[in-house]
Amino acid sequence: MGWISLLFWLALCFAVAGISGRWTASEIPGWYRTLVRPAIAPPNWVFGPVWTLLYALMAIAAWQVWQSSPSALRTWGLVLFLVQLGLNFAWTAIFFRQHAIGAALLEVVFLWAAIGATTLVFSRVAPVAAWLMAPYLAWVTFASLLNAAFWRLNRTRRNP
Q1: Cα(127)–Cα(59) distance, rounded to whole angstroms?
Q2: Domain with 61 in it
Q3: How confident is the model at residue 111 (pLDDT cuts 50, 70, 90)?
Q4: Which of 18, 24, 124, 132 gives a 20 to 30 Å CA spacing to 45?
């Protein structure tokens, strides 16, 4: 039964990754290429492997919490996990689909806070799960700075 629940969490996270990745990939050769790139922006090829690893770690973290004894804290942690996953999905829609860099910057603040809250609750339920979330929190911290830099350099552009 444990492996089936792991497959569920992996499928959920990679469903978000797959849709988000398709939206992102469709904008790279067009709109995204026209943006002024900040100096801190890594090459485009970095994002795929990094996000693949992060989604896998997130899924395993959620699974670890799911495997723990039922409790209100476990439920709260999983609810927060789903909230942050939804915010993760929304960021891609806002940035890449709507081309709203400023709105994405505001949204990523909520995403970062949700990841932080999820990680804190996970630490009380299954400490390993919190450690598995740590690279994601670190990456979204960097991504927030990158989003801010894109906004600063491109804020006078009109959205198509």
Answers
A1: 15
A2: 2-154
A3: very high
A4: 132
How many C-beta atoms surround the C-beta of residue 24 within 10 A? 18
Percent of the chain with pLDDT over 70: 98
146 located within any domain: yes
Cut 0.85: pTM above it = yes
DSSP 43-97: PGGGHHHHHHHHHHHHHHHHHHHHHSPP-HHHHHHHHHHHHHHHHHHHHHIIIII
The chain-wide mean pLDDT, for the chain, equals: 96
User: Which residue carries 């409790």 as its tokens?
Assistant: 71
- Overall domain count for the chain: 1
Token digits for 17? 């990754």
Counting Cα atoms < 13 Å in the Cβ hemisphere of 86 gives 7
| CATH code for position 31 | 1.20.1260.100
Indicate whether 159 belongs to any domain.
no
Q: Which two tokens stand for residue 57?
A: 């770690």
Contact 35, 150 (CB under 8 A): yes
